[in-house]
Amino acid sequence: MKRKNPHNSTTETAKAFQDTAEGLIQPPPHVNLRSQDWPHWESVTTAKARDAWTTADLEIAAQLARTMADIPRLRSEIDIEGDTIVQPGTGNTVVNPRHKILDAAVKRSITLTRLLQIHPLATQGRSADQAGRNQAQRQTSDTAESMKDDDLIATPAKRRH
């Protein structure tokens, strides 16, 4: 059995550059995405290595992209209509039924994310590890900020319009 290269090897780095150069993964021919699904498709399919995607995964990724596109639309509709609506015919005030649809879409997106293994634990690692990376980022940002006025550090030139 061929041993897989460690994720930090030169071979894996070269493979990542090659995958990036190939551009966005396209959905299988039998899967149709709406125009509003494409930003979510890109977000989903770039969450793990290109060669980790199977056709079945891409079909599920399309469902996730569609669901992710539906969530802000549903939120916007609720914002316009309100949390409660007057029920036609009876005149009773009821909870906007879109809340139930939105809740189902959010739950579906979480389930599909787990199924595709692109949830935070799979993509970022354990929270203890992430805390260390966050601290390193803050320290780097603090150092960069403190060196901002240092004449020895080159700063980007401002663009002129």
Describe the structure.
With 161 residues, the protein is mainly alpha-helical. Helix content is 56%, strand content 4%. The protein has a two-stranded antiparallel sheet with strand order 1-2. Strand 1 and strand 2 form a beta hairpin. Helix 2 crosses helix 3 (55-81) and helix 3 (55-81) runs antiparallel to helix 4. The longest helix is centred in the middle third of the chain and has 27 residues, at 55-81. The radius of gyration is 22 Å and the shape is extended. The mean pLDDT is 81.
Break the fold down into its secondary structure elements and pairings.
Elements: H1 10-21, H2 38-45, H3 55-81, E1 84-86, E2 93-95, H4 98-115, H5 120-124, H6 127-146
Helix pairs in contact: 2-3, 3-4
Largest sheet: 2 strands, antiparallel
Structural class: mainly alpha
How big is the Rg?
22 Å
- Determine the number of helices (DSSP H or I, runs of at least 4 residues): 6
Low-confidence sequence ranges: none
Report, as a whole number of angstroms, the end-to-end distance: 58 Å
The total of beta strands comes to 2
